[in-house]
Write a structure and sequence with these properties.
The protein is of the alpha+beta class and about 130 residues long. Helices cover about 25% and strands about 30% of the residues. The strands form 2 sheets. Strands 4, 5, 6, 7 and 8 form a 5-stranded antiparallel sheet that branches. It has a 3-stranded antiparallel sheet with strand order 1-3-2, with helices on one face. A hairpin with a 2-residue loop joins strand 6 and strand 7. The chain is globular, with a radius of gyration of 15 Å. The two termini are about 25 Å apart.
């Protein structure tokens, strides 16, 4: 697999489109940090890191509206790809849906959202957009 982050996002996207409650994804430290951000921002219900004496697994409970079953994640897309990396300076950080969405960045301060990067005045690689 050449792009594990794209695989991570695709598994979440496919789980939402299929209406699944839980999605299982192979774990890595970067994926764990992205999962924590998605949970803190309210895009997923809960998560659990399971150690299987190998790579490990992330179990993500997807979030839906209780009555209308509309998913919390409308769109989740990869921005920086292995073939074409996208970087943003601290002064030109992207705004997703005029601030309603979240851009997840990998910076020298760790994996953070675009709003946190603005307050810390750091730039980095734009991993994905979520809204």
């Amino acid at each position: 697999m050449t792009d594990p982050i794209a695989d991570y996002l695709t598994r979440i996207r496919n789980g939402v489109l299929a209406g699944h409650k839980v999605v299982e994804i192979p774990a890595s430290n970067l994926k764990k940090e992205i999962t924590k951000i998605l949970h803190n921002k309210g895009y997923i219900l809960s998560y659990k890191f399971v150690d299987d004496n190998k790579q490990g697994v992330i179990k993500i409970a997807l979030k839906y509206h209780p009555k209308s079953k509309i998913p919390a994640i409308k769109k989740i897309e990869r921005i920086s790809k292995p073939g074409l990396r996208k970087y943003a300076d601290a002064t030109e950080l992207p705004r997703v849906l005029n601030g309603l969405g979240v851009a997840i960045l990998s910076t020298s301060k760790g994996v953070i959202t675009d709003k946190e990067a603005r307050t810390l005045n750091v730039g980095g690689e734009v991993l994905c957009y979520v809204y």
